[in-house]
Every structure is written in C-alpha cells, then in structure tokens.
Amino acid sequence: MPISFSNIPQNIKVPLYWVEVDPSMAGLPSINLRALLVGTMLAGPSFSISGVTWATGNATYTTSAPHGIAVGQPVTITGVNPAGYNGTFTTITGTTGSTIVVGIATNPGTYVSGGSARGPAGPGHGDATVDVPIPIGSQAQANQRFGEGSELARMFKAFYANNFANEVWGVGVAEPPAGTAAHGTITISTAPTSAGTLHLYIGGEYIPVNIQTTDTVTEIATAIADQINNTDGLAVSATSAAGVVTLTANWKGVGGNEILVSLNYYGGLGGEQTPVGLGITLPQGTGSPTPSPGFMWGGVGTPSITNAITNMGEEPYEYVCSAWTDSNTLFEFDQELGFTDSGRWGWQRQLFGHMFAAKRGAYSDLLLFGETNNSGVESIMGFEVNSPSPAFEWAAAYTAKAQRALINDPARPLQSLSLNQIKLAPKHERFDFIELNSLASTGIAIQKSGSDNQPMIAREQTTYQLNLYGQSDDAYELVTTLATLAKLLRNQRQAITSKFPRHKLADNGTKFSPGQAIVTPGIIKSELVAEYRMDEWNGLAENVQQFKAHLIVERDANNPNRVNVLYPPDLINQLRIFAVLAQFRLQYDRGIDLEIIGAPPAPFNAASGL
To answer: Which secondary-structure segment (H or E) carries 158?
Structure first.
C-alpha cells in the first residue's frame, strides 16, 4: 500500500466507504501564553506544630497555641517531616484547643520535626490555597481569593489597569513566619486656619480628607483614619489617638516598606495644596540605613517561593511577575526558568518563559544591584526612590504590558508602552539620560516619563551581561530576543510533531512511493526552510538564504533512528536608535557637491552660440 494510513486496517473486508481524518497539514501553532503574578496573600493565622502522633487511621497534631479551628473545617498542614503528614484535610472529632485531628489511612512514620497548620480563611482573608496557582478573571476574584488589600490583590489591580484582555493566574504565598508588618504614623500637630482638603496619597492611592477650621487635631486624625479604612482595597489599615494616625500594612514582610505616604502629588497647578495652618508630619522611620521620609518601615521577612514554584508544575506560565527582588527569590526563579536541564528553557521541559520585577532605588544603588545579577530570563525595572507607587505594582504593570505586547508580536520592542496608573517620581528626581543609559548598560530595565505624565517602558533589558567566563556578552540582553526565539521554536515544534508524528526515516535519495509515511533529512530540511520562510514573512526572522546555507540536517552516526539539526535563525531586530548626522549647508552652489548638483556648465562659446 503506497499510502500510509494510521487507522484504517490493511485487511478490511467490509464495504464500502471508510475515511480517516488527518490534520497534520492543516494546523498552526496555538498556545495560550498566560501570566502568573506571585505575591503575598492574606491567608489567616498559621500555627507552628510541635508534635504529631498517628494511631488507627488518625493523625493528631499539637500546635504551639490554641488554633480556633473547629471540627469539620479544612486545615492545611505544611513543612512536617515526614512529609506524609502534610496536605489539606478536614478536621474530625478531637480537634480543640491546641489539638488537631485528621484522618490519614497509612502511618507516615514517627514525627521528626517542623510543620505549621493553617485553618480556613476568616474575615478579610483570602480563601485560596497557599502556594497553589489559580486563574483569576477579575479584581473581585483577586480580592476574594487572596484577601482585599493584600500585596497580591494590589498587584492584580495594577495588572488589570494595563491589561484586561489576556489570561492571568495568581499564586498567593504566605507571610514569612517570623515576619513583621510595616508601620508608620501621621501626626497632626496644629489645626488649619482655613478649611480645605488634605490631598493624601498612600501607595499612590488618592485619599482626600475634608477638614474644617473647627476640627481639632484629634478630630482631624480620626477623619484621616476613617477615610483610610473606608477606602476599599487599600494596602494599610489605620487607627487614631490624640492626633496621631498609626498605619499598619495589611501583611507581614518587606513589601510593606514600599508603601509611601505623601501629600499633594499634583501640586498647586493640579489644585492640590495642604490647608493653610495645618501642621502635619508624615512617617519617618528609624534604623540603619534610615528609611526615606514618608515611607512606612519596619516590615521584616521575605516569603519563601519554593513551594509555589514546585506547584507551578509543568503548566505553561510565560510571563511570571515577582513581588520581590531579593537574591534568594531571583535565584529560585532563574533556576526554574533558566537553561539548565530542569529549567523551563532547558531541553527536557521546553516550556520557556520570562520573569518580570521592579526595584526602587537611588541611581548608585541600582547600579550596584545590576552588577550582582546575570540572568537572561529575568527583567527588573528600576525606578526612582520617591515614586508613590510600590515596586510590586510597578512589576505587575510591567508584566501586564509585556504580556499584551509580546503575545501580539514577540519581536516588537516594548519601548513607549505606558504603565497606566503608576505614578512617577517628582520631575526633579527622575533619572536623567546618563543615568538611564548606565542603568541599561548594567542589566536594569529602564523607564521614563511619557507625554501623559505616566511612566513608559524605555528598554526591556534583562539582567544578562556576562557569559560563563565572565566576559561581556549581549546574547540575551533584551526580553524580545528570547520571546522571538520561543515563538520560532514553538512554530518549528508544531510543524515537526504535526507532519511527522509516526514516520519512518530513510537516507536522502531513497526511492519510495508518494503517500508513504517516510521522511529523509532532505525532506526535513525543506520543511524547516519552508517554516523559516513563513517566520520571515511574519516578521520574526530575516535572511532566509543565509539560514538555508547554514542549516544542517543529518542522520545521527550512532543512532539510525535519530535526526540531528543545526538550526541557525537570524532573529529580526528592532529599531531602537535613530542616529542622524545633520550636515547642513548655507548654499548648495559652492562647488563642493558635484555629485548632488552635477558638474558646472561649460563656459559660453560665442562662435557656436552655446
């Protein structure tokens, strides 16, 4: 039989018409490139486990303090050794005080150490399972699953302001076990001599407070606290006493230190002025180094993302957003997304992906930070110290715009894309040209002010700067490089796996009838060239003739069932610099531009009249 059927039997006897459908020549690659936001959720209290016993199908956990979990409620156990005691269970009879009882059919073994227990979500807490990615379709869902006003819910607010069209997931991590929440105070020292509005900003969110001349300092502080607590989704809560408003971040950890308390962002020209005579002092932290004025302070602890990364599994997450830029977090994401055998860019997994984050800092601090990092899969946007918007919201906005643009075309630069609802630092504090250029040269993605007074992406730099031997290298310096390469490889993988899923392999020159499921290195090479022509047509690559000349497809010398390919795509580039030499003239007939204006006419010949 010259035609290779996959399903219709060779020896069929029953008449008459039988057909099998083959889509191998019809399909085009289609993959949903989702984003994943990683931040702190409000998961409710967690209790340390000091001991575990097992008997007759039940495990009994002893917690360090009364847990308040009732019989029949869910409880999540993590970190116990042996690991068989970990999981999410429903509590049974005997659960009370500092004791939790759940059903585990098989004895996991003698308790060794560690562990924590977390009960169901309470008021203000998210109901998502810690460290497990879930799809989020709206801000209301983010608030419900991760807790309204949590770090992660705030990230979703920034994300949706910049991308409302593409699929996004979230994974909420628990607060660091020994962490503390950032805090700060607003002190009212004198009442105003004229009525007006206090234009207060907390983490970039506008909090207007109307003040009368008859208000006392205590009443003004109470009004500020009430307005803060009545603003949905804010990252802080407030109390007041004797003219002092105490602010506390909704979650524990260093993320709360990103919350800036400021006044009159738009200034007098924008109609924002502090009421005359009002004495007000914004937060000023202590410690070493001394926190910048206006920032909440004292937040301690960075959550662990190890379990969250494990639970990402083999699901495709193309655009991962991290709320943190500490060394441990960046290392773990680099290992998960990078080029090692176990990385998402490694040959075994082929999932690909990028990580986006943002970092606040002075110019010198960001330069030093950039020099300590070197990853082709991580892009960290630097921004000025006194931007009212927190770093985790900058990161989410950056991720949102990157996803939206790169899905449409992975090869187009991200420059000029605005980060909506992110507030810039004051004009006199923004990075200048030299600073931006140096930051980009040190592995920091850069932004600058757009005409709408919102930040826009200037260069989507990765932190990659050096090769394996520590020598300067630009192979992965731009996000678009790997984004384009991922698109090419996915196109190629779809073509090969669709068109040659169950083929025989023969040498070039083998004579076989048309319709046979046989492929040769030459046929594969032709398919790769055809696919590359399509990629070139779609604006992903260039120089098809050079590609064809350098493409190698050959059978393996030691394995007759294997084909080896040297695939040399020439990725299309981006228009990033337009340099002009304006070589002006005062007059074009000064005898120096003959090629442009032509040779001067011959002298007049009176005899010929010419």
So the answer is: helix 151-162
